[in-house]
## 1
Amino acid sequence: MTYKELLEQARTCIGPHCKACPVCNGKACGNTMPGPGAKGVGDVAIRNYEAWQKVRINLNTIAENKEPDTGFDFFGKRMKYPIFAGPVGAVNLHYGDKLDDIRYNDILVRACREAGIAAFTGDGTNAEVMKAATAAIRATGGAGIPTVKPWDVDTLKEKFALVKESGSFAVAMDVDAAGLPFLQGLQPPAGSKTVEELGEIVRMAGKPFIVKGVMTVKGALDAKAAGASAIIVSNHGGRVLDQTPSTAEVLEQIADAVKGSMLVLVDGGIRSGVDVFKALALGADAVLIARPYVTAVYGGAEEGVKLLTEKLGKELADTMKMCGVSSLSQIGRDSLFLPQSRYVRF
């Protein structure tokens, strides 16, 4: 199977909102689904993608000729690439009823492990979603990261019991999901957390804790104060607040504020291995990619996940080689083209 064939196959069973576009940039689906840019004018997902395209990299082949090492250490696990499949929920509602969350996570978690990376799994108002996600992780020996919504403490205790049974090596919470329309006014309640409340949750989890949905330096420092081991710079694909900056625009300052004290991951519009390289150069340790993995599962199941992962990994390795770096640790700001007004006029 080629990537073109994967997309063609996905188009037969995905939608009607998602179009399985050659590049998932949020333009074709707009704000027609609770996904790309669903809030307001629906431009955040588009801006997420376009911001990465404005970042330019430096070509440099006067360097040692060796194969790049794309390996990444993540809480004691060695990943083939600094790439994770992002958490996605309600796939049957947004992407077509060929799959439900249970079957989707079963395919995704297993296939990511076989591809040498790991998947974040989603959560939802249906309790069976978390049960199935953690069961899929347990079946792979804990090779996945369950992501829980910002529920009340009693509900989180139930969720964390499932997380513990899964044997996962870390757990995440998408705190920005407090802004999702379907979580408003629910019982059990879900919502934003204070630093103190988040600290209690981190201790309750009993595993390396990842806070997803950080978009400011203050948010990163608050997550650090609460005891989080990592953050994910994310605006939830534009689903929770209209008119936010893109993740590429805020990543550098956030990474500068907490780099070395916690891991920094980023998502939002990252669609190629070149984009992954740019994210690492701006200070991220790794990236999450969500919607293209949905297309991969719908279009090719396990084979599709492997195909997409290897495509991204090869693009990353090729970029590293052409930019004169042989390991992820060598990717830095000097890998980026940062024009100075003395030489360049726009």
## 2
Amino acid sequence: MKPDWREADEPLRKITITGSELNEMVEITGSAKGLHCIGIGTDAAAFTYDGTPGYAYKVYSDLALPKKEIEKQVYERLAGIPFFPKFYGEGEHYLVISYEEGPTLHECLTSGIPVPEQVIRDVEEARTLVRSRGLNPRDIHLKNVLLQNGRAKILDVSEYVRDGDDKRWEHLVWAYRLFYPSVEGSKVPAWVLDSIKKGYNRLDQANGSIEEFAQRISQLFSKFMK
């Protein structure tokens, strides 16, 4: 029998998540025995609790509490789609979802863990299902897709109510087809991925083309592979 997720409520009250209006990572103060931070973002931090295995708690800063309500509604609308965590409930400052194991795609690249084609197909199917629920599957990137038993599990649905296509997933698929075969099984240094990310984020500001960006990536990988 699964433990009651509410058993973590008291330990969670012993921590404070402080956000920033400058979109910086949240700060965590306080601690509680058995409580473990498993991720930090600009709106919230995620925790597990030893007394309630199988659950993850996304704890929001005061600044981000409106986003908590939005994300709750998104999870409720995604219910039954197997590519996302299950939603269980909420506390004053947190949402409760299923704890999902597995490396992120970013960790797969830095650790040399092969990413199968099935992961790409799973995310494509998930995006179609998200749209069928009247939502917009945005902000899908290397750090919020898990490799789980050869399949994909997608984390962080907070932007699915926003309009527009940020093209992040489309460009990841493009990079997977074009560059990944040359590095599959190799450990790609984190600094290489960070350099690619920074260059990608500057694309719009510099009005550069994706083709020019591809040439820079090719040069970077050619140096790495030597």
